[in-house]
Amino acid sequence: MTPSPTDSAQTDLAALLDREGAERELFDLLRIPSVSADPAYKADMTRAAEFLQRKLASLGFTARVDATAGHPLVYAERQNVPGQPTVLIYGHYDVQPEAPLEEWTTPPFEPTVRDGRIYARGSTDDKGQAYAHVRGVELLLSQGELPVNVKFLLEGEEEVGSPNLEPYLREHADELKADVIVISDGSRFAPDVPTVTYGLRGLSYVEIHVQGANRDLHSGSYGGAAPNPINALAEIIAKLKDDQGRVTIPGFYDGVEELTGEEREMWARLPHSDEEFAASIGVPALPGEAGYSTLERLWARPTLDVNGIWGGYQGEGSKTVIPARAGAKVSMRLVPGQDPERITRLIQEYVPTIAPAGVTAEVRAHHGGQPVKVDLDSPYVKAADRALTRVYGKPAAFGRTGGSIPIVAAFRSLLGAPVLLVDFGLNEDAPHSPNESFAVEDYHNGILTSAYLLQELAE
Amino acid sequence: MTPSPTDSAQTDLAALLDREGAERELFDLLRIPSVSADPAYKADMTRAAEFLQRKLASLGFTARVDATAGHPLVYAERQNVPGQPTVLIYGHYDVQPEAPLEEWTTPPFEPTVRDGRIYARGSTDDKGQAYAHVRGVELLLSQGELPVNVKFLLEGEEEVGSPNLEPYLREHADELKADVIVISDGSRFAPDVPTVTYGLRGLSYVEIHVQGANRDLHSGSYGGAAPNPINALAEIIAKLKDDQGRVTIPGFYDGVEELTGEEREMWARLPHSDEEFAASIGVPALPGEAGYSTLERLWARPTLDVNGIWGGYQGEGSKTVIPARAGAKVSMRLVPGQDPERITRLIQEYVPTIAPAGVTAEVRAHHGGQPVKVDLDSPYVKAADRALTRVYGKPAAFGRTGGSIPIVAAFRSLLGAPVLLVDFGLNEDAPHSPNESFAVEDYHNGILTSAYLLQELAE
C-alpha cells in the first residue's frame, strides 16, 4: 500500500531522530557568544545569524540575513506545498549577558551536559527552543517534502526589547504572511505537563502624580492644616481596590471575557498547590480577587499593582517634611475584552475624582499592550494538542500566562494571524540566570513536537 | 518721694533707650560669621562667644565661655537679689550658613539697614533677639540693680541640632536652676500682635516597613496572586485616618487635653484667614480634622503625616515589578496629655493588625519629643502679658506653635522650670533664607520687652 499523507503523518518520527547530530549542531550555535546587549559581541551576532542562514539554506530554504538598525535577523522560507497552510516560526538567536560569570559552574559559552541537562547561555532561551524547530523541519525533510509551507523569522534583539522588530514586521508584512505563528520561547506548566499557552494579559502602565502645597512644608508648622500629598496618594491607591480585591475604576470590568466552565475545570486539574506557590515566594498568604483561584487570578483576571512609589524624605534618620508632591507607577494587567487605551482613559478620569480635598491628582499614560487569546476551539490549538499528545503520550494542558509579551501582540496586530505558544522549556531552566540549562530530553521532544505540529497543521 | 520698687517698675524705659549704642553693638556681633555648620568658621565661633562673654562681664555678670564637644557656649549670671525669682535667658549666637550667597542683596555679614530693617545673617535668628535681652538687662542696670536674678545661657550649636546642650544641662543642672526660662528665638503671630507662645506640640516619629515576597517579582507572572507591599502600605496609611481626618489608632486620643472655651475664643479673635493661609501655600482647600479651626488643628490637635515613602521602581520609564518591600516615614505631632513613648507603642501595636493578608508590617521607632504647655494662669504668663502691654499698648495674644522645639522639652524636663516663649521676630524676617532681616523697631521693642519682663517677673 502506498503511504497516504495521513499515514505519513502517523509515522513515529522518534525512532528517526538523529540525536547526536542535533546536539552537536546546537552546541556549535551555543558556542557563539551572541549577547545582544553588549557591543563587544557585535561580530558574534553576525556569526550566529550566518550560522542559521547557512543551515536553513542547506535545508532548501530561501534564506537570508537582513540588516536592521540594530542586530541582523534571519529570514527563511520554503513554500513548496501550495494550498497547504503557511506556518511562521519565530525565535531569537541573541542571548542574555552572561554576568555574573563567577556563578557559572562551567563557562556559559562552552555547552556542557551534566545530569541530562545542557548548561550554556541561550540553551533554553532561545537557541535551544528555536533550533528544535530547525531540526524538526530537517527531520520531516528526511522523509520527503514538508507538509506545510514554513517561514522562519529569527531575530537578534529579543533580549534588548526587540526595538527593530515592529518596523521589520510592517515593512515585510506581505512576505511574512502566514496562517499561524508558532513561538517556543518560554516554559511549559510543569515537567510532565505538555502545554499550549493560548492567552497573554495586556497592560496599561501609568503614573499617578499628586500635588499638594507649592513647596515642601515643615510638618510642625503646617501639620494638621496643610494637605499631605503622600497621605492623599495612599488614600487614592487604597481606593482603587475594594475589600474583595476588585478594581473600583468605573467601567474597568466592562467587556471582560469571563472564564468558561471548561477552562476553570481544566485549570483546576493542573498540578498547582497554593501552599507551594506561597512558599516559593515566601509569603504567608495569597491575597487576590475573591471568587477566583490563583491560576485564574494570574491568567484570566485583570490586576492593578503599584510598581513604584515615592515622595518626601527617603534617607537615613528623620525629616519632618510635608512634601509638595508624591507619585506612583501603576500597572494594570488586562485580559481579553479590555482595551489598554480605554482602561488608561478610565483611570485618568477616575483618579482626580477620588483625590482628597486640598491636593490635585493627575494620571500620566506610559504605555500599553493588547491582551491576546487564541480560540481554544481553533484548528491550530487542536493541532498543537494532537502533536503534543503524540510526543508525550498524554493530551496537552491549555494554560495562559500572566505576563504581556509585546512581540506577540505585534505579530497578532501586524500580521493578523493567531499566535501559538508551544513552549519546550521549564522554569527550572533558569533563563536569564547563571547556569541556564535545557534538558536534553526537552530538546529532542521539542524537535519531535515541531515536526508533528507541522504535520498536524497540514490536516 | 523715694522711688519704691513698684514705682521703678512703672518707669517708662522707652525714653531711656540708647538706640544708637544698641544697634552699633548688635552690628558688631552680626559681623562675626558664626556659622556653626561650617568648620571653616570655627575661629569665628570662638570670637562670637568671647564677644558675648566680655559684654556680659562688663555688665557685672560672672561670665565665662564653656567648651563643649562642639562649639563653646556662654554662661553668665548675676544673682544680687536674694529672695527674688531667678530667670534663665536662653539664646544662641550661631547662625545658619549664608548660602546661596548670590541671592543676598547686601553681604550676609555686613549688616545693612534698608526700609527700617537690619539685613544680616543672624539678625533675627537669633543674635538680634538674644542681644535684645543683653541690652534689656543693660537698660535696667542703667537705673539700678536688676529686679530679679538673671542667668544667660547662649549656645553655639542650635542650628546644628544642639547636640551638646542636653549633656551640658545635665552636668550644670544645679548651676542653671531657675524659676522660669525665657526664650526669644521665633516669630510672633503677626506684626501688630505681641505674642506669648505657651505651648508646643510633641512628636513621635516612626518608620513603617512592609515586607511582601522574599524577592522582587514580575508583575505579569505574579500580578493578581502575589501580595503587593506598596498597595498594602497605601492601605495601611489610608486606614490610619478616618474620613473625618481623625487618627484611628486605638487609644491615640486618650488623655488629650481639650481646648478650653477661653482658648478657642482667644484664637478665633486672632487675625487669621483660611483663604490667605491656603493661598500662601498654593492649595485649593485645607483638609483636616473635622470640628476644629485651622489654628486649633495646628496648635492643639495631634496629627499623623507621612513624611516620606518609597518602594519599587522610581526611575524614568516603566518597570513591571512587584517589589519585595516598601516603607514610609510617619510623624505624629502630639499635644498635652499625649506621651510620645506611649503613642509610639500604640502605632507599633496597631499597624500589624491592619496589614492586609500576605504581607508583614513592622513599625520601627525613631525619636520622640514631649509636648509642652505652660499654664495660662501662671504668674509667668501674666507677667509676660503685662510686659508686652507696656511695650505695645495692647494686651498680648496667647498662642501655641505646631512645631516641636526639642530644647524646650529638654529645659522643661532637665531643669524642671516652665519655659516662656516671647518672640520678637516675624515670619517675614525670613530666618534660614537669604536676606534674613530683623525690623529695627522689633529689636528696640525686644530690648524694652526684656527689661519690662524682668521687672514684671519680680512682682
UniProtKB/TrEMBL annotation, chains A, B:
It comes from Deinococcus terrestris. InterPro entries: Bact_exopeptidase_dim_dom (IPR036264), Cyt/Met_Dipeptidase (IPR051458), Peptidase_M20 (IPR002933), Peptidase_M20_dimer (IPR011650). One of its GO terms (molecular function) is metal ion binding. One of its GO terms (biological process) is proteolysis. Residues 198-357 form the Peptidase M20 dimerisation domain. This is Dipeptidase. Keywords: Hydrolase, Metal-binding, Protease.
